[in-house]
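Margin note from the TA: students keep mixing up input and output lines. Inputs are the sequences; the output is the structure of the whole complex. Example:
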Amino acid sequence: METPKRSAHGRRIWIRFLVAAVVVMGGLTSASPAWADEPGETEVGYLLVQQALGHLAHDKTSTGVELSMEKIGDALKTEDNAGVNIAEVQQAKAALEAGQVVQGQALLQHSITEAVSKLAPATGEETGTKVVSDPLPGRGALGGTGLLFLAASLLFLLLGGGLAYRFKPADTVGQLRERLGTPTDQTAAAPPVAPSKDAS
Amino acid sequence: MSTATSSAMPPEAQPRSRGRKALDALDERLGITALEYPVPAHANNLAWSLGGVTAGAFGILIVTGLILVQFYSPIPETANESVRHIVTGVPGGWFVRGVHSWASQAMYVTAVLHLMRVVFTGSYKKPREANWLIGVGMFGLVTLGVFTGTVLKWDQEGFEALGHNIEIGNLLGGAGVWFSPDFADQVPILVRLYAAHVVIVPGLILAMVVLHFLLVKRHKISPHPLLPTDESGSQAPAEEPTEPFTHHLRRIAAFGLGLLGLLGVLAVVLPQEIGPPPVMGIEITRPPWNFWWMFTLENWVGLGGILYGELVFFALLAILPFVDRNPNRYWRKRPIVMILALVMLLVLIALTALMALTPAKQHLGM
């Protein structure tokens, strides 16, 4: 049983903890973010087109299109446009402005065909990317095989859960505690089992 | 009559079935019954079996990984496409990949829960400090396994994760040279990370698992803080009922089977998308949730936030048994450690939650 003295001590610890937690969390959440400056941008034309494609592949909404248009603008301005079909990039820009994202993507991809065909095998951290395709879902439509996998998985889940229940210990910790008694360091009246050098 | 005669005979003199004979012959050569040593009854609780469940997830990862490597190409030009082929062109490939992906999350989560249980019950205390350090090292390797696995997809998310790692390697100077693409500049770094993912990381985990198990065997299962201990204070008392260790393994196998089923359900219901092939120079994705807390720090203080955040996190875990000299294992008798652990947990949860609310920002190449 807890004595009033122990209870008050416990409350003080919790109050101290809550104060500390509030201070730490408050400090963390109110700290102002170190906003990144604009990154150093590439001037390689085909890479700028790939970046435009990357934005479109991830986000086909107006935000993604806007980011993509910035990259297209850079690609049209840069002098390092070897292997890039500028006319197709301009057509892609027009398509995107007209809201035809898929057509814009196709034109952008086609505009760098020559540039990516001349790329040497990737080394170091080079991407080796030639075609920037859209994300692919983790599976196709759920067919017979998928349902079979699902059924087998559910069977394993139930079987494993059932066996784990069947093999459960004969006694719970509570029952073991009743049988073995409470450790001396948890009884209020008992002396400590060992000299307490709590880091606390 | 023969039954009555048999039951009167001592067990070793009773006639044995063919199956029993085969098992005995096997045991004579492999010593399987040596695993039947007694362990305290509380070892069969789920909380005390979490390490075993983590090992089960590791086993699932190895088996599914062995299948995936047959079809994966670790060459930058074809890596993303080969993952797409596993999903669309290999019979059942999407399922195996899904189970592998979810198993990595399961291993991470159960390892975290196992660590938390060990902290909560004071199981890292003398004489188990070395085993705690091995456990912390294994958790670091599990994190590395999740990271390298993310990169292997070779989509934008994986590539951006790699970019962070390269820049953190640069921050480390000479100590981070292995992470530099210049370390072997004629080889795509993806190939080296593939080697790390399929050989180095699991190999090290396996070696450390063996050490971990041997030390558990040597120091025995730690006592339950709600139950009395023996005179040393570090072992379960002789009065506590015991069960053969094989029963512990049996229950872990049952949990493992259930886990496999759960991962299969997740693979079907929540399949993992494959992102677009990577493009250099843009930063538009979020890393896997396991790393969100570090990336919130990065948003605040730059790339160093990831490095120093990780260093502080693992340093705090590593020094725990050496600064906490309190012999008590019951949580109420260890208020400072419990409060600090809770604060650390809340900070990690808060940092993770903040990342969920923050749009991706550009840090690479800064």
